[in-house]
Design goal:
The protein is 17% helix and 29% strand. It is α/β, with parallel strands linked by helices. Strand 2 and strand 3 form a beta hairpin.
């Protein structure tokens, strides 16, 4: 039997509904980040940098692009005969087919995969956060405390603590109480959704709760283990960690990359972030182009102006176009003379000439104000915006739009224009 000290189970099946049209056709972990990467690159890179060479990636929602991106794991040195990376979608059993119904249920459905490697420890990860973490340090902490479960935690601002599951610990960091999104939190030490389990403890808990509907680690498995007396400890992480689950946090995390001294350094030689790279031509910056504080991807051509923005690969910014405080994902085109401010533009978008995008007063979005806010314009992938239109703030556009879709050539602030066939 194969024996691994620790294997990782990476939960990457989430829909990411709070990212709106950005995840209409792609799983959240496959969404582009930083002009070059996908969100899932960060936990995968953490694994190989930490010496974890066996990773099961659990997929479900819109998995095609994610599966293609990961492939056999070559960029992360995870193409191995023993271990490496394995894609683990829900599968049809002899009696029925079951979707993953919760984070722990997804792990339970892959018990055979874990049993095959017979690990001493199992590392459970989410696939939708931006951070660098040495999981080996966390494992050493787990061993030192003779823990059954170790939760990675981070101090969050008190005013944000009610958004998280928080823990209360004793002076040795052993967890005494859990509070799941409390209205009046008594702690600001928040769970990061990263766990190390001693394998025997995890297996027993999964089997005991296998009939629990929507079985979840935070709501079911960890409280169950804690109540039966298992040793559960908090590992306090001191580094950068960003939940990019909303459009506002996603935009802010990208903008932090272009600070003069970025809080999160993509260029760290000692902790590299690996990704699948296409072989494409170099970027081109024209003589009369202006680029100020920006990340520019490979194969991108800039003939206009780019200020304080993150631009992906293969983008074209035509002459006279001005892009400010924006994220533009790969293979999109910004037409000549178009002004674009505080926008998130997904892949393969074409914006016509002489448009004004992201202008005017802030008005709450008419359909989904909790998703489309922060003064942003969000444009879904494969969208076409005709020339000469004006688009206000807190707006969303998705699909092949035409001039007739814009009353008097305008989509006012707070407006939503989602063509038939698009999901959100």
């Amino acid at each position: 039997m194969i024996k691994k000290e620790m294997i990782a189970m990476l939960l990457a099946g989430g829909q990411g509904s709070r990212l709106g049209v950005l995840t209409s056709a792609v799983a959240k972990p496959a969404v582009g980040f930083g002009g070059k990467y996908s969100i899932i690159d960060f936990p995968l890179s953490n694994c190989i940098n930490s010496g974890v060479d066996t990773v099961g990636v659990l997929t479900q929602y819109q998995p095609l692009r994610l599966n293609t991106h990961i492939g056999i794991g070559i960029p992360w040195d995870l193409d191995r005969n023993v271990g490496g990376v394995s894609i683990l979608p829900p599968y049809e059993k002899s009696t029925n087919a079951e979707w993953y119904t919760g984070t722990a249920n997804a792990i339970f459905q892959n018990l055979r995969f874990m049993e095959y490697y017979n690990p001493e420890y199992v590392l459970v990860l989410g696939g939708d956060h931006i951070y660098k973490m040495d999981y080996e340090e966390m494992l050493n902490y787990h061993k030192k405390n003779n823990a059954d479960i170790t939760l990675a935690t981070i101090q969050v601002p008190w005013e944000e603590a009610s958004r998280f599951g928080v823990v209360i610990t004793d002076d040795k960091m052993r967890i005494s109480e859990f509070e799941e999104k409390p209205k009046n939190p008594r702690s600001n030490l928040a769970s990061m959704g990263i766990y190390i389990f001693t394998w025997k403890v995890l297996k027993e808990a999964l089997l005991a709760l296998q009939d629990q509907e929507g079985c979840d680690f935070g709501k079911h498995i960890i409280p169950y283990c804690h109540n039966r007396g298992d040793r559960v400890f908090a590992y306090e992480f001191k580094g950068y960690w960003k939940d990019v689950g909303t459009l506002g946090s996603y935009w802010a995390a990208n903008m932090e990359l272009i600070d003069m001294v970025p809080v999160f350094d993509l260029y760290d030689e000692f902790w590299k972030i690996y990704t699948k790279s296409d072989i494409i031509r170099p970027q081109y910056i024209a003589d009369n182009a202006v680029v100020h504080r920006a990340i520019i991807g490979e194969g991108t051509e800039v003939y206009g102006e780019v200020h304080n923005s993150v631009i992906g690969a293969g983008v074209t910014i035509e002459e006279g176009a001005v892009v400010k405080d924006s994220i533009i994902m790969k293979n999109s085109v910004i037409g000549a003379g178009t002004y674009l401010e505080k926008a998130i533009i997904a892949e393969n978008v074409v914006i016509g000439a002489n448009c004004r995008i992201g202008v005017g007063e802030e008005v709450p979005n008419e359909l989904q104000p909790k998703i489309y806010g922060d003064g942003l314009v969000t444009v879904g992938e494969d969208t076409v915006i005709p020339e000469g239109v004006v688009v206000g703030k807190n707006t969303v556009i998705s699909g092949g739009t035409c001039a007739d879709d814009y009353i008097n050539g305008i989509l006012p602030g707070g407006g939503s224009l989602i063509k038939a066939g698009d999901r959100r």
